[in-house]
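Worked example 2:
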Amino acid sequence: MTTDDAWADRLEANREEKDRFFDEHPQSPIPPEERADFDGLSYFDPDPDYRVEATVAVHETPDSVDMETSDGRTVRYLHVATLSFDLDGEARELHGFRQASDESRTLFVPFRDKTTGQQTYDGGRYMELEPDRDLEDGDEITIDFNLAYSPFCAYSDTFSCPYPPESNWLETAVTAGERIE
């Protein structure tokens, strides 16, 4: 089994687990009356070209960013890192965020791209990057767009989800991760 095959198998297992959660779990964003018709989420085919290495620039004094949400409120995040990478032959950047109360290492990376509102949810998609240690300037981290997902508000109006800030709008089509039918 090649590395790409093992990666694709892990990705498929992750998708199957998520589909089970959406179908069966009491905290699923799928309204209970719609679960009988739920056949699983839609995804782009796994594509290793959408796994990229990004160089990290850590912001020791992060700027506050107010993100608008799907229910008209705003939520404040801290811009803690900038991720620089190549995708589709072009240099690109995404910002990684955390809420001030979040003590984890997880980076919240909401984004829009040229599929937004057409092949993917019109409010954008999310990724969470989970480094195994505190990041430092110049570190490399893998961004796997195949793990990009639609926020819960894509499935139910009972959820409030932040919209990606304009700084995280990619000028390319990212045909990886979750999609809409």
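DSSP finds one helix and eight strands in the chain. The chain has a mean pLDDT of 94.
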